[in-house]
From TrEMBL:
This is 2-oxoglutarate reductase. Residues 415-484 form the ACT domain. It is an enzyme of class 1 (oxidoreductase). It comes from the Eukaryota. PROSITE patterns: ACT, D_2_HYDROXYACID_DH_1, D_2_HYDROXYACID_DH_2, D_2_HYDROXYACID_DH_3. The lineage of its organism: Eukaryota, Rhodophyta, Stylonematophyceae, Stylonematales, Stylonemataceae. GO terms for biological process: L-serine biosynthetic process. Catalyzes the reversible oxidation of 3-phospho-D-glycerate to 3-phosphonooxypyruvate, the first step of the phosphorylated L-serine biosynthesis pathway. Also catalyzes the reversible oxidation of 2-hydroxyglutarate to 2-oxoglutarate. One of its GO terms (molecular function) is phosphoglycerate dehydrogenase activity. The keyword DNA repair does not apply. InterPro entries: ACT-like_dom_sf, ACT_dom, AHAS_small-like_ACT, D-iso_2-hydroxyacid_DH_PdxB, D-isomer_2_OHA_DH_cat_dom, D-isomer_DH_CS, D-isomer_DH_CS1, D-isomer_DH_NAD-bd. It comes from Rhodosorus marinus.
């Protein structure tokens, strides 16, 4: 069995499949290898032996004595053992051209597809892909990951990552990246505009004129100045909404399960119930989680002021939308704006149906909170740069399922990456190997999650191939990579 490594790549061969009970591994030296593990955060089965071919490591690494600094600008000078032009990037769902240009600047081979792929289509397409870029509609399941023989990393060019089996990806050594902040301003502006639109009954007045009815009224139309905005989830988007709302003269209150210092004149509420009872407008900015499913249901809607408004631009599971439709039709809630739905179509086109259609003073938008030219360009840049750093340098900063590490560059070194089961003694075993092989370590960085450990090591060039082979053969090893 031979593992061809280099240039940030884990170009492996599959030597066997783990049994369902994780008790055995069958090895066939001629078959392609990829280590797999169960979903969840538990202990993963050990990998079969992985080692580098004797010719896969360069012996002429020289950068004129450059030492210990950021390696962002050094990629063109590092003698990678695998040509960058052979690194395959697959980008789905109309990912920004900004990302494409960044990958091409690295001489990566880039393929773009404007739509999401089904699981079966993706399983076929991903077989020889090293870097996968998706948005929210592509599902990266354990089944898809098992088909990815050479996959190094996944980039979600959006905020959410629930479309990826994160635990399974972690268990087979694949970090997943996203862009939690790049579309913050775009979402905040949408929410702020909807506050004003609802307070002036824009949806109804616009629909009436489209139907030929002139209806100039002031009843039920309000200025937002002096009104109270309640923000549930005071994170990056929530705080941006607060700043914009205060510029209109609104009083801002917020609730978050994590203690947060207020910006401006915002005031903290101790409970969600307190916020719902005080706010004229309620806007939701919470993640998808078990705790947030139907966070706003029939009981919470009844707590809201009569004539108040609800805005949801977070996740479709956060609000019981059938209960919201009833509250709108009864007049208890005076208006609503909804940008996210529990079940969203996989592609644009007719046929969308929902209980909120036809409800009074209701704005429905097709998940466009972050859909601006500026946001998509920012997301493209942020995620692409993270993926490039992983491929070139082994950096995992902002990975959602991996320890976040970035080791500075050290000249005249090989860089070894090892992903292993997180249990006592692994680091000791690796350092024992270095000692036995007379390998001098220049720098070493370890990070862990509950399930895995991620070790980045720079060792001097004279390191033998036997050293890398022994590390890969450790029972706890999941994946080993040599960058250069």
């Amino acid at each position: 069995m031979v593992l061809f490594l280099g240039g940030g790549l884990f170009c492996g061969f599959r030597s066997g499949r783990m049994s369902e009970s994780n008790k055995s591994v069958q090895v066939s030296p001629s078959a392609p290898v990829k280590i797999t593990g169960p979903t969840g955060g538990g202990i993963y089965s050990t990998s079969p032996p992985i080692y580098a071919s004797p010719n896969s490591f360069p012996t002429n690494l020289t950068l004129g004595g450059v030492d210990e600094h950021s390696i962002d600008d050094l990629s063109d000078s590092i003698a990678y053992s695998f040509p960058k032009s052979k690194i395959k990037v697959l980008l789905l769902e109309n990912i920004s051209a900004t990302a494409v240009k960044l990958f091409e600047r690295q001489s990566f081979s880039v393929e773009t597809i404007p739509k999401a792929l089904s699981v079966e289509e993706l399983k076929e397409k991903i077989k020889d892909v090293h870097v996968l870029g998706i948005r929210s509609k592509t599902k990266v399941t354990a089944e898809v990951l098992d088909a990815a023989k050479r996959l190094l990393c996944v980039g979600c060019f959006c905020i959410g990552t629930d479309q990826v089996d994160l635990d399974y990806a972690q268990g087979i050594g694949i970090p997943v990246f996203n862009s939690p902040f790049a579309n913050t301003r775009s979402v905040a502006e949408l929410v702020t505009s909807e506050i004003i639109a609802l307070s002036r009954q824009y949806p109804d007045r616009s629909m009436e004129l489209h139907c030929g009815q002139w209806n100039k009224v002031s009843k039920g139309c309000w200025e937002v100045r002096g009104k109270t905005l309640g923000i549930v989830g005071y994170g990056h988007i929530g705080t941006q909404v607060a700043v914009l709302a205060e510029s209109f003269g609104m009083h801002v209150i917020y609730y978050d399960i994590i203690p947060k210092l207020p910006l401006g004149n915002s005031q903290k509420c101790e409970t969600l119930e307190e916020l719902l009872e005080e706010a004229d407008f309620v806007t939701l900015h919470v993640p998808k989680a078990v705790e947030t499913v139907n966070l706003i249901g029939e009981r919470q809607l009844a707590m809201m002021k009569k004539g108040s408004y609800l805005i949801n631009a977070s996740r479709g599971t956060v609000v019981d939308l059938s209960a919201l439709a009833k509250a709108l039709n009864r007049g208890h809630v005076a208006g609503a704006a909804v940008d996210v739905f529990e079940k969203e179509p996989e592609k644009n086109g007719p046929g969308f149906q929902h209980p909120l259609q036809g409800c009074p003073n209701t704005i429905l938008t097709p998940h466009i909170g972050g859909s601006t030219v500026e946001a998509q360009a920012n997301i493209g840049e942020e995620v692409a740069n993270a993926l490039i750093k992983l491929v070139n340098h082994g950096a995992t900063i902002n990975a959602v399922n991996f320890p976040n590490l970035e080791l500075p560059y050290h000249a005249e070194c090989h860089r070894i990456l090892n992903i292993h089961v997180n249990k006592a003694g692994v680091l000791r075993d690796i350092n024992d190997i270095f000692a036995r092989c007379d390998t001098n370590v220049r720098a070493e960085l370890l990070g862990t999650t509950a399930a895995i450990g991620y070790l980045v090591v720079d060792v001097e060039k004279k390191t033998s191939d036997e050293t890398k082979k022994l590390i890969s053969e450790l029972p706890a090893s999941i994946r080993t990579r040599i960058l250069y």
